[in-house]
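BACKBONE GEOMETRY TOKENS
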Amino acid sequence: MRSIDVAERRARLSVRHRLAAPTRTDQVAEIVRSLVVLHATDPATVYLSVGARSNTARPADVEQALYDDRTLLRMLAMRRTMYVAPVELVPVLQASCADALAHKQRRTYGKYIEQSGAVEGDVWGWLAEVEAETHDALLAKGAATGVQLSKLVPRLRTQVNTAPEKAYSKPTNITTWVLVTLGCEGRIVRGRPNGSWTSSQYTWEPIESWLPEGVPALPAEQARAELLRQWLHTFGPAPITDLKWWTGWGLGETRKALADLDVVEVDLNGTTGLLLADDAEPVAAPEPWAALLPALDPTPMGWQSRDWYLGPHAPALFDTNGNIGPTIWWDGRIVGGWAQRTDGEIVYRLLEDVGADATAMIEAEAARTTEWFGDVRAIPRFRTPLQRELTA
């Protein structure tokens, strides 16, 4: 069993995640492919993750890839999390994750409707009709907000109280439920935001706007194996627990998908890790680099076992729900955190001594991040202890 130490894992991270200077590119879709997907729970993450790995690409270039070239697509997938994915990966994500999620969402919302008594007769047939009518309305209109769709499809305004016995519970219409389910099923897509690139209020479009024939169907087993293959190329080597956590699958599903791949076991300082058999050669360490990565960037969120790049800094950089905030990286490890103040200033704090040369490179990255934001101010979707301190 070959041993891979922390230094080599950091070298792989530096190169595969396009964070070392020679690996950076201005091709937005290529950056996303290098990371498998980008986290998109916080819309600003998508843009800042690209900015950290490019030389001259700007928010307009990300929007070009998303909404004009349509080489990228926004969707819910692993762990019911929002991602931006390359369009060619969508069938894999759909079959391996989103189909099961759509089934779960429809079952949950359908039970709420059934229990409320808001619909008489066959609730599931009624819900299927509303979904089809909503999709047809988007095909006819091209793009619409939830409010606009609820006017085009009156049954979307059906009111349901999910917990009538609770004083705080109030009736709500089913518009969002239907749209989320259709999105999970791959029939509609979140389009342009209503506002700047930090906005999370989107229009909706039919999937045919991105994929004219819809999402190609794949066997779930084939899709799971392909998703793990891409993850291992980008994030490997790693223990199986990291794969299980990242995908959100059960251990049995994860093992079954791995059985369809040619993988080898390696020693990660006493822990057994997995690596693609054709990717076992050592990766040379690049020149030292610095980066400011945004909250929920796919690099720090790629593994459940994070000690080898996070060190002792978790209490300052994570919120109580396990969300990581903006981080400062030096040569393959996290060394601090940063934040944007209301006046636009980027402020940061190093959590360990990295030396004068590293500090100078980090300062340059902070200036570059300030330029990236321009006049835009990003409202954090969650707050970590260090972010609170830096913006107090």
Notes: The longest strand covers residues 333-340. The mean pLDDT is 95.
